Amino acid sequence: MKALDLKIPADLDEAYDLLNSRRNATLLAGGLFIRLQKKTHPLLIDLNGLNLDYINEIKDGFIIGAMTNLRSLEKSKLPKAITDAVKQISGIGVRNMATIGGSICGRYPFSDINTALLALDAYLVFYKKGKMSMKDFYENGLDEKDILVEIYIKKPVFSGTKYFKKVYTDLSILNVSMVDNRLAVGARPGKTLVIENFNEADFDKIPFGDDYRASGKYRKALFEALYQDLLEERGAYGS
What are the residue ranges spanned by the domains of the chain? Predict the structure, then answer.
């Protein structure tokens, strides 16, 4: 990665103006994937100074600042779907740098945290656009440049996330999140699918594809096993 210019805005107004000042301006949250690129960025806008690192518990849910790192999510009292999803994302050093906002805005189809947030039916709050469902953003993105400020999730009765990785810190070959009767299946390897009131009769409705890491047939077998694990966990939880 190479940056021709780096700005550290003092507030969201300044950050938003900088973002729209140049066509190729790029927001820098955790910036881990950006650091791996060989691309030259005309302008990077570092969001670290905007005080968007927080987890606030409210009566019916949680509000998470977009710059909250994954390690903070892992150690929090957030629903288990989230804490499960982040605890094997690379190593602790990476989780101390990667942010929930960076994961969301990348819209990565392999992301464990995005699958959990989709199952939780999370809502996002952007600086200008305002409130938007995680599902809508994940599927369609934004029409205009904007800055993710925070994420809102409700408190579920039960939630959990399961995944399969070749090694502890690898990307998931498949990930599955269950929140009450809502199921999300990611790394298929296509985009995460969300299914309401899923049951075993729906198994054949989920397409699984081949790539260099695994076959669709293998992913389907993994899904059936991970789903059963979640059912057992939910049963032990008493829901």
Answer: 2-42, 53-154, 159-237
pLDDT tier, 91 (very low <50, low <70, confident <90, very high otherwise): confident
First-to-last alpha carbon distance for the chain, in angstroms, is: 48
The H or E element spanning position 114 is: helix 112-119
Measured in residues, the chain has a length of: 239
Residues ≥6 apart with Cβ < 8 Å to 4? 40, 41, 42, 43
Amino acid at 54: Y
Query: What value does the CA radius of gyration of the chain take, rounded to a whole number of Å?
Result: 18
At residue 53, the pLDDT reads 96
Span 15-53, pLDDT tens digits: 999 999 988 888 888 766 666 566 777 888 999 989 999
Q: Tell me the pTM.
A: 0.93
Q: Which amino acid is at 68?
A: T
Tell me the fold of 53-154.
Answer: 3.30.465
Cα–Cα distances (Å) from 119 to 9, 49, 168, 224, in that order, read 33, 30, 23, 17
157: left (phi over 0), alpha (psi -120 to 50) or beta: alpha
